[in-house]
Design a protein that fits this description.
Family (chain B): Belongs to the peptidase S26B family.
Radius of gyration of chain B: 22 Å
Largest sheet of chain B: 7 strands, antiparallel
Number of helices of chain A: 5
CATH topology of the largest domain in chain A: Double Stranded RNA Binding Domain
GO cellular component, one term (chain B): signal peptidase complex
Protein name (chain B): Signal peptidase complex catalytic subunit SEC11
Number of strands of chain A: 5
Oligomer: heterodimer
Shape of chain A: globular
Number of domains of chain A: 2
Helix content of chain B: 25-40%
Structural class of chain B: alpha+beta
GO molecular function (chain B): serine-type endopeptidase activity; signal peptidase activity
Strand order of the largest sheet of chain B: 1-2-7-3-4-5-6
Largest interface: A-B, 38 and 25 residues
Number of strands of chain B: 7
Distance between the termini of chain A: 49 Å
Strand content of chain A: 15-25%
CATH topology of the largest domain in chain B: SH3 type barrels
Shape of chain B: elongated
EC number (chain B): 3.4.21.89
CATH architecture of the largest domain in chain A: 2-Layer Sandwich
CATH class of the largest domain in chain B: Mainly Beta
Chain lengths: 195, 182
């Protein structure tokens, strides 16, 4: 019982980070946007993008561990061929990972599924991506909406200074950030109704 | 400092879900794996089982001082010649020794026996070899010195002399990687 209690505490406590750390700022805002989409709009998170990255990394580390064990059991130079294969595979996978993070993921931190209430039509897909450049203070949030039935995509993005959402101590003010996310999302909804 | 003593810095970890936690562990694994793969890659490229060694004694002064880093290669096609600096291991002992080749006896089939001596020593290495051993052979050679970096190896010597310091540094680095979110 106490375990779930502390978990809930950790989630509800106001998020406090080092306000000068750009990565922490971006992560805090991304997490807050995630919460809005999943909790307030009742969407389900689709994990396939993150799972892809985890898979590439796991395979890479697997090659490295295999090389370690093989070399321990068959000391160099007997293990030369195996080592060459593992080293080349590892660095190749690192290259694949970089390409994956840069082009496939491209700042996306959430893929959420909006389930159809009737349970008949395919889910709408909401994709959230963000950009916060190093040493910059403008956080740009992009929302991409893909209609489940027509498969058509619509994008909207808006940037604000992070100073709007964090106080002097580095605590995130959710009351200021949540309306921004809702507004951005609703603007896509209105477009939908317009069509 | 008080931030470190509070558990504030662990809040970030508590906020992570299972996938993010696994990714933090993977991150740590990838850093270790990258270092490992670079080391194994060097082993393959140089042909030596220990491509980088630290000079541990002053027996090769003034060429090498204690704490210098040496890059080795061990290509079998390159013959060992008198005057070359070789790194070798005595059978039964782990520590690599960096000395110069003094004399060589070579057979026609390419097998050879050689004697070594440190530049700064007054006698040859026969006192260091295993009891009854008078010559070294190719199989004892870890590699030949091809390049060197001065002073850099002092850190390794320090870490070996004070293992607690080594574990402390590694533990701090490990914890930092596991907690810090990309």
């Amino acid at each position: 019982m106490s375990g779930s209690g502390t978990d809930a505490d950790a989630q509800d406590k106001p998020v406090k980070i080092d306000k000068w750390d750009g990565t922490a700022l971006k992560n805090a805002l991304d997490d807050a946007a995630k919460k809005v989409m999943l909790d307030k709009y009742n969407m389900k998170e689709a994990h396939s993008l993150m799972d892809g990255r985890l898979l590439i990394c796991t395979v890479a580390v697997g090659f490295a561990m295999f090389a370690l064990i093989w070399d321990y059991l068959n000391p160099f130079p007997a293990s030369r061929t195996v080592l060459i294969i593992c080293v080349l595979s590892y660095f190749l996978l690192m290259g694949v990972l970089t390409l994956y993070t840069t082009y496939t993921e491209n700042g996306i931190f959430l893929v959420a599924l909006d389930k159809d209430k009737a349970g008949v039509d395919p889910d709408d897909i909401w994709t959230l991506a963000s950009v916060l450049k190093k040493y910059d203070d403008i956080y740009t949030l992009s929302i991409i909406f893909e209609d489940g039935k027509t498969k058509k995509k619509r994008t909207v993005e808006k940037g604000h200074s992070v100073a709007n959402y964090f106080d002097e101590e580095g605590s995130l003010c959710v009351e200021k950030f949540e309306p921004f996310v809702r507004q951005l999302k609703d603007s896509l909804n209105f477009e939908k109704k317009g069509n | 400092m008080s931030g470190l003593l509070n558990m504030d810095f662990l809040d970030e970890v508590r906020r992570m879900n299972k996938r993010q936690l696994y990714y933090q562990v993977l991150n740590f694994g990838m850093i270790v794996s990258s270092a490992l793969m670079i080391w194994k890659g060097l082993m393959v490229v140089t042909g030596s089982e220990s491509p980088i060694v630290v000079v541990l004694s002053g027996s090769m002064e003034p060429a090498f001082y204690r704490g210098d880093l040496l890059l080795l290669t061990n290509h079998q096609e390159e013959a060992i010649r008198v005057g070359e600096i070789v790194v070798f291991k005595i059978e039964g002992r782990d520590i690599p020794i960096v000395h110069r080749v003094l004399k060589i006896h070579e057979k026609e089939n390419g097998s050879l026996k050689f004697l070594t001596k440190g530049d700064n020593n007054s006698v040859d290495d026969r006192g260091l070899y295993a009891p009854g051993q008078l010559w070294l052979e190719k199989k004892d050679v870890v590699g030949r010195a091809r390049g060197f970096l001065p002073y850099v190896g002092i850190v390794t010597i320090l870490m070996n002399d004070y293992p607690k310091f080594k574990y402390l540094v590694l533990a701090c680095l490990g914890i930092y990687v596991l907690i810090h979110r990309e």
